[in-house]
Amino acid sequence: MIKYRLADDAKPQVKLLLLASLITVALWFIPYADYLVYPVRLFVTFIHEGSHVLAALLTGGSIQSMKVMSDGSGVVNSLTSSPLSVLVTSSAGYLGAIAYGTLLLFLIRRAFSARVILAASAGFVGLMTVLFGLFAPLWNVFTIGFDFTGLLFTVIAGAFLTAALLAISKYASDWWANFTLAFLAVQCLLNAVNDLGTLFLINSPLAPSHIHTDAANMAMVTGIPSIVWVMIWIGVSILLISIGLRVYAVANQSKQHDLPFED
Question: Mean pLDDT across the stretch 197-211?
Fold first, then answer.
């Protein structure tokens, strides 16, 4: 049987990740702490909605608009070309945020430059903001109408996040750049899991809600109840997170007889 243990070279990175996780959990119990991590919440929303955009484009669809709301929610108006496109696009939001957080764990573990990753993340947010938060809704204004408030907030939030990430990537110390990246990874994973929990409650047969969700889109296309799709997404998310944490923290020790995660 292949045994695993905590890799020696991963210990400093694991400490940084644990610190980011502890701070995240601590903030849950501090009144009004949501305001402290509000920009991060908006960042996760951009990743979520950007994942919808990419999935729609890759499956032959088109994007009419992308909006990020001040409450941290978001919506993408897309024209999909097939039921498969609907399935992939609807699943991409929650799973995309989880996949992004997992990817950050992988990149951190492989010692990729935190500054480069932060700059790339800034580029992604900026691209989504300009192309689909600004130009797309203006181009399709006669089709979808004009939501000035939604467009303005999306552009302001996207511009702020892009500038902040670029500033951190360029001016922050190495420790702060690495910590920011670890914190973003934790926030992406935990926020996505928390959102899936909320989605589960919204689609629960015991307390159904009339809020239209990505899971409702899946149910409309497949006939499979939305709660089933939420449970599938939760299962896939747990699998992705477990793979990411293992890749991040452990080393293959096939010839060792140490206990798992033993120093």
Answer: 71
